[in-house]
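Sample entry (207 residues):
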Amino acid sequence: MSAADERVTQLLDRCLKSVDLHARYLALDDAAYARVQAWPKHERPTRWVVDLARTRLLEVRRLLGERQARGDEGFAEALELMAFLTSLLGSEHVERFIPLARPRNAARPRGRPAATRATRAQPAPSRRQAAPAPDSVPPPEPAPGTSDKVTATVIADAARLISWGREWPQLAGLITRLANRPPEAEVWKILRSHRAQIEATARRPRD
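Predicted structure, serialized as tokens:
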């Protein structure tokens, strides 16, 4: 399996998991849906859109598997290029899309969160004694470190997008949609830390 095959396969798997989460979120009212994850601005997808997206994703994954079995590496590369071009050319002023839902950030679709129930069951701590942590509340996940390779990739993506006419506020959303890129919050940290380098690279004349 080529590197492009692996990247596209991972991207399809992430998208399928996201669509499955959105299928669960259809049962939520608008207020609960807004709280379940930190969504970008978008028009909430309907059941028809979610079902259609899942059908098309499964079809693309089937086709990718057939081409991989034939040893056709160009198919995955073409899909990756098309995904990049779609993000680059078709994302401006578009709100009707299915944002990526991440399982580790997903809240429970129904009922009161377990952490809230456990906290209310605990007695109020005295002033001299610190409140014990509820057993049902897991410790927060540490944010994964950003490798030099990931940082360099994001910087290169950002410089290329700026040179193609994209504005600074659009960069993180576009880069996050590419395969093997970190979450949007992490992309923004890289962009802010290396803005001068990115802008200088984007404006550097090509040989």
